[in-house]
Amino acid sequence: EAGVAQSPRYKIIEKRQSVAFWCNPISGHATLYWYQQILGQGPKLLIQFQNNGVVDDSQLPKDRFSAERLKGVDSTLKIQPAKLEDSAVYLCASSLYQIGDRTGTGELFFGEGSRLTVL
Amino acid sequence: LAKTTQPISMDSYEGQEVNITCSHNNIATNDYITWYQQFPSQGPRFIIQGYKTKVTNEVASLFIPADRKSSTLSLPRVSLSDTAVYYCLVGESNSGYSTLTFGKGTMLLVSP
Q: What percent of chain A has pLDDT over 70?
């Protein structure tokens, strides 16, 4: 079974430039997550989708970050304009979890991440 | 919001059993407890999830007391390859959906 695919693996940009990350979740997974992981810290949830709808984007800096999941499959995360503090690994994950499930979130499957360096 | 507290780091030797305890005093009735493992330059990997009492799989056991305010991940006979960061997560249930929030994690170092 193919895992969660992310691209690019590495990206270096200058501040105020824009960048986009792409994620292809595991086939059939309803829920998709974007996490930001700054060096030395745990992953921080940015946005959670169920199918193509947003269920939680409370920690997404909406003045510069945007995300979409068209057709409930692939997703893109965009940063515009980037700041120095956006340097981090951006992790995409997917799961079978759906709202109302009473058996917990189940297993989240993570991609390898996209490492962003903002100079 | 449910928060978790776990040791920043732990040291062990190959072949020993390692127990990592996590406290989550504000856990809600619908929340599950989940543990993830993360190696450098990789995404976190699911280890185990439970709601109460004890859960065991091929890699670990999870012990949850009756009050569910803490949980203990038990790794039997660790090897060098178990050196990693271990995260304890409690689902934050809001409006019917559950979100997983990672804390700082426990850095486990296994030595020969």
A: 93
Q: Which residues pair with B5 in a beta bridge?
A: B23
Decide if B100 and A111 are in contact by the 8 Å CB cutoff: no
Q: Burial level of A28, CB count in 10 A (0-12/13-18/19+)?
A: exposed
| Segment of A51-55, A84-88, B26-30 carrying the highest mean pLDDT | A84-88
Asked if B69 has any chain A CB less than 8 Å from its own CB, the reply is no
Q: Which of A46, A8, A3 is nearest to A25 (CA)?
A: A3
Q: How many helices (H) and strands (E) does chain A have?
A: 0, 11
The three-class DSSP label of residue A84 is: helix
Partner-chain residue, chosen from A41, A108, A112, that has the shortest CB–CB distance to B104: A41
Tell me if chain A has a CB within 8 Å of the CB of B107: no
A18: β partners? none
Evaluate if residue A102 carries a pLDDT over 90: no
Interface test with B, best of A35, A94, A108 (most B CBs within 10 A): A108
Q: Write the pLDDT tens digit of every residue in A16-58.
A: 999 999 999 999 898 999 999 999 999 999 999 988 899 889 9
Which one of A105, A108, A112 has the shortest CB-CB distance to B32? A105
Which residue would you say has higher pLDDT here, B32 or B83?
A: B83
